[in-house]
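hey can u run this one w/ coenzyme A bound, need the structure tokens asap thx
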Amino acid sequence: MKEKLNEIKEVILEAARKARQETGDIPAPQDPEPFTWPINCTVGPGLEGAIASESKIGYVNGSKGWLVYRGYDIFDLCAYSTFEEVSYLLLHGHLPTTNELNEFKGKLAKYRILNKTLRIVMSFPVEEMNPMAALRLGTNMMRQEYSYMDKEVGRPKLDDAISSDEDSIPMETTPMGYANAIYEFKTNLCKNPIGMRKTLWDASNTEACYQLIAGVSTLTSAIVRLKNGHMPIEPLPGLSHAANLLYMMTGHVPDPVEERIMDIALILHADHGMNASTFASLVVASTLSDIYFSVGAGIAALNGPLHGGANEQVVHSLLDIGGLDNVKAWVKNKIENKQKIVGFGHRVYKAYDPRARILGPLAEYLVGGRSDCMQVIYQTAKRVEEEVLEQFGREKKIFPNVDFYSGIVYGCLGIPVELYTPIFAVSRVSGWTARVIEYLQKNRIFRPRAIYTGEFNKEYVPIEQRNRDV
Ligand SMILES: CC(C)(COP(=O)(O)OP(=O)(O)OC[C@H]1O[C@@H](n2cnc3c(N)ncnc32)[C@H](O)[C@@H]1OP(=O)(O)O)[C@@H](O)C(=O)NCCC(=O)NCCS
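ok here u go:
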């Protein structure tokens, strides 16, 4: 087994060597230049190009295909680290010592037990629900288990936070920047209300983040079991996060290879710049709502097929192709009809996505020696990649993204397709929570503007005079 684990490490290191070879002539990024707000930038629709905040958490270089968490290259983290270490790193800014890691693991083990939340969730028709909807529901129900935020005394009061009144600033003025932007907390918000157990009274409390990181995996596993007519399984205290996730889903303790591959997949999805779901979490947090609502917003945003939902669509489309012989024509047809090929392209990466660089070879490693449908799906995927690169040409810069091979990896681990997106959430919850905590240190409510292109000076017409049929 040790040999197999070494083989997996070699697969990652080989992917890293290839990535460094292809981007080897590109100098490493320098320390960021000091800057002051406001910043000039060119903004497109959907806030494309806008700079929303500073962050020390993660760095994505889309033109080179680099991904860095807190200064560490994603290839090194995948080769040598674990999801627990990476989550700690994202939240706290440094890799944990042995004691810190053990304490963190102990907390995750404790918070993985979600009996009260599961009891509430099971009163809903989970088996008929979209798993992401069930996950969002369950995440919100975790508030009941761990916090008193739903009780009147636990809610922030309006005068608990001092803010500049955004709408009182004439919209024509330029953004003021930090000097006027920071929301201050009155010191009394930092006191635990009398009579309540000391828990999530502060939205930036890291304990709540631990609860969410642990709990989202328990919920995801329970949801798949309920959908298949089984009862949820309690986590095993001695297992890693990745192993527990697989165990709670399938009822079998995974072997070390399955555990390692799951672990790597979790590391790879943990954070990715100011992506749509992270932004959604931050928008919610910026109103001084709480971390459960923030993570719920992240889950909602992740669900869409342009974001986390793409991994499920990839597998469906690879099956739809109907065999290797159809690939060329299928890709040609998509391109000619200007249809998006799911699992390709990225808003940020205009180079090969480093996560796909790892997941592709891992998928190949996993299907090796198999002769089932996963082998066929993998071969189809490989051929689709070749055709897309060939027919588009490298200059079009449409490469496989993280979602292209992840489904094949999950499929080989026995995870059903409808769980691919929830598993993305199991991992990304680390990034969401870390970034919410960071953002709240210098909070400014998100309030971009829209350009009004509608009409003015219209005269009100009473309903009985509105006759559009003539
Ligand atoms: C992720 C995505 C939304 C990024 O979109 P974007 O940055 O807005 O890129 P655009 O839609 O502006 O595309 C730029 C060009 O590349 C093409 N393109 C982008 N992604 C493509 C894809 N997956 N298949 C085919 N063409 C694609 C567009 O058609 C467009 O071509 P044009 O300039 O001739 O009009 C887009 O690539 C996509 O929809 N991919 C498929 C869904 C997916 O895999 N999502 C998961 C992302 S991790």
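The chain has two domains: 2-309+419-441, 310-412. anyway lmk if its weird
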